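Researcher: I'm preparing a figure for a lab meeting and need a structural model of a single chain. I don't have an experimental structure, so a prediction will have to do for now. The sequence is pasted below. Please return the structure as C-alpha cells so I can convert it later.
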Amino acid sequence: MAATPDVTDAGSRLEELVETAHRIRRAIESVIEGKSDVVRLTLTVLLAEGHLLIEDVPGVGKTMLAKALARSIDCPVRRVQFTPDLLPSDITGVSAYNQQTREFEFKPGPVFANIVVGDEINRASPKTQSALLECMEEHQVTVDGVTYQLESPFMVIATQNPIEMEGTYPLPEAQRDRFTAKIAMGYPEPAAELEMLDVHGASQPLDKLEPVATTAEVHALIQAVRAVYVSQPVKRYAIDMVAATRHSSDLRLGASPRATLHLVRSARAHAALSGRDYVIPDDLQDLAVPVLSHRLLPSMEAQGQRRHPEQVVAELVRRIPVPDAK
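Model: Understood. Here is the structure written out cell by cell.
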C-alpha cells in the first residue's frame, strides 16, 4: 500500500498512541476487573471523538467505568446525576442577572468540561435529555441566542438502566443516534468478582487512581487517529453494512448516515489501538454491533420473535461480502 503524508504522520505517532492508550487502559483495569473488551471499546470511542452509552442493570460498575476513564486523564471532568426534576439549564448553564454590573452573566453548566459523566441519563425527562443534542453533535452550547464553544477533546459518557426498570424514560432516537457506541457491562466472572471483593473490600481503588495522560496527549492521539488510512473498498464495506440495516425486514428504522461516519471513525481508532495505520474489514466487523444496534428499531415481527437489534446486525454482517483490505 502506497504511503501518503497523512499515513506517514500517523505511523510516526502510532507507537506513542499505543503506549499512552495502554497506560490509560491499565489504570482503568486497576478499578474495573475482568472487563478488558469493555475498556478497549471505551478507549476506542474516546479516540474516535465520540460519545459512549453504557446500559445495564444497577450495580455492575457503569458509573465506576466512567469515573475511572475520567480520572485516568488529567482534564476537567464534570458529573451530572440525571433525575426527573433536572432542567435543561442545569446542564448547559443559565444567564443570571448581576445586581452590581446590571447585566446578565452566563454561568456555565457542567457540560463545559472535557469529559461529562451523565449518570442514569434515562431518569430525566426527554426535554432535559435533549439539552445534550447540540453539544454532542456540534461541540457547542447556545443559551439566550449566544453560542459558546466547548473545549476539545469533548466526550459524554452516559449510563442508563434498562428501560423496563421503574422510573425510566426511553432515550429519543435523535439522542441515541449521537452516541457513537453502546455497551453493556454484564456480570463479572466469578474470579473477577472474588478479586473485586478482596480489592474493593479493603479500600476504594478509584480514590487512589492518578492521571496517566494529559489533555494535550489525548488531543494529539485523536489527531493521529484521524490520519489512519481507510481504503475505498473498506469505506464501501462500511456503507454496505449501514445500508443493510435500512432494507432489513426485521427493522423499522435503519441506521443514519451519521452512523456510517461513526463506524469509520471508530474503525480508525480500533486499528490504531491494534498497532495499524490502516483499517481492515475486521475492524468494522468488530464494531458493527456496538456502533449500530442502539440506533435501530425492530419491526413488530422481530419484537414478537424476541429478535434484538444486536442479533439482526450480527446476521447482516455475516451476509455482506468482505472486500479486499487494501
